[in-house]
Amino acid sequence: MLDRRLAEWIVAMLFAAVVGLVFQQISTDMTAQGIASGGPYNDAASYPRALAVVILIVLAANVGIRVLRSRSGAPQSGGISAHALRRPAALLSLFALYLIALGMVGYLVASVAVMVLTLLLCGERSPLRLALVSVGVTFGLSIVFGGLLDVVLPRGHFGIALPW
Amino acid sequence: MISEMLAAGAVLLATPQVIGLTVLGVALGLLIGALPGLGPLMGVVLLLPVALYVEPLAGIGLLTAVFVGGSCGGAISAILLRIPGTPIAAATLFDGYPMAQKGRAADALGIAVTASAIGGLFGGMLLIGFAPLLAAFATRFAPPELTMLGVLGLLSIAVVSKEDTLKGLLAGALGMLIATIGTDQLSTGYRFTFDSYALLNGFHIVSIVVGLFAVSEMVFQVAGSRLTEPARPEATRAGFGAVPLVMRHRFNLLRSATIGTFFGALPGAGGDVSAFTSYAVAKAAARPEEGFGEGAEGGIVATEAANNATCGGALIPTLALGIPGDATTAVLMGALLILGLFPGPALFENQPEIVGGIFLVYVLANVVLLVIGILLVPLFVHLLRIPKASLVPTILILCAVGTFALQSSVFDLWVMFGFGLLGVLLRCADYPLAPVVIGTILGPIVENNLRRSLLISRDGYWIFLDRPIAAVLVGLSALVIGAAVFGWVRSLRRRGGMAVTDPGTDDKVDHQR
Question: From CA B236, how far away is CA B105, in angstroms rounded?
Answer without folding.
Answer: 7
